Amino acid sequence: NTAKLADAAQQGLFTVWRYHAIFTNNPAELVTAELQHRGHAIVEQVIADLKAGPLAHLPSGRFQANAAWLVAATIAFNLTRAIGVAAGGKFTKAEGATVRARIINAPARVSRSGRRQRLHPPAQWLWANHWGTLWTAVMTP
């Protein structure tokens, strides 16, 4: 990027820092306003994740059905997030669909032998380490 500016006989205004203008009507100090803004972005991501999944089936014609579906969707979302965090790595911040596709829908087989449960994933499964981390976290007393 600096080479392009030098070739064009221009100097960058700020070569070390990137500054962004912030326009807000929030009366709080800048640091507090930015934290609130980032909090809103997280909430919007959660809503988008829910809309892409279980909330895509709303609304029903009945209020009670919508309320029950919303409760079930919230529980499923929270459990999926907990599974992603327990699996570790890139799954700690992955979307719900990614956690469901790669961790929850595991192509593994669980067997019991000698009062112990064992996991048998495919030999070259890419997410075996993450699944093993999750399995250890769940099965450890």
Kindly describe this structure.
The chain is mostly helical and 141 residues long. Helices cover 53% and strands 7% of the residues. It contains five helices and two strands; from the N terminus they run ααααββα. A hairpin with a 2-residue loop joins strand 1 and strand 2. Helix 3 (63-87) packs across helix 4 (96-104) and helix 3 (63-87) packs across helix 5 (128-139). It is extended. The model has no long low-confidence stretch (mean pLDDT 81).
Helix and strand composition category: mainly alpha
Span between termini: 53 Å
Biggest sheet details: 2 strands, antiparallel
N-to-C SSE series? HHHHEEH
- Individual helix count: 5
Provide the gyration radius in Å.
23 Å
Mean pLDDT: 81
Strand fraction equals: 5-15%
The shape, in one word, is: extended
Number of strands: 2
Looking across the biggest beta sheet, what order are the strands in?
A: 1-2
Low-confidence runs of at least 5 consecutive residues: none
Instruction: Determine the fraction of residues in helical runs and give it as a percent range.
Output: 40-55%
List keywords for this structure.
mainly alpha, 141 residues
Q: Which helices and strands occur, and which strands form pairs?
A:
Layout: H1 2-7, H2 30-52, H3 63-87, H4 96-104, E1 109-113, E2 116-120, H5 128-139
Structure at a glance:
The protein is mainly α and 141 residues long. It has five helices and two strands.
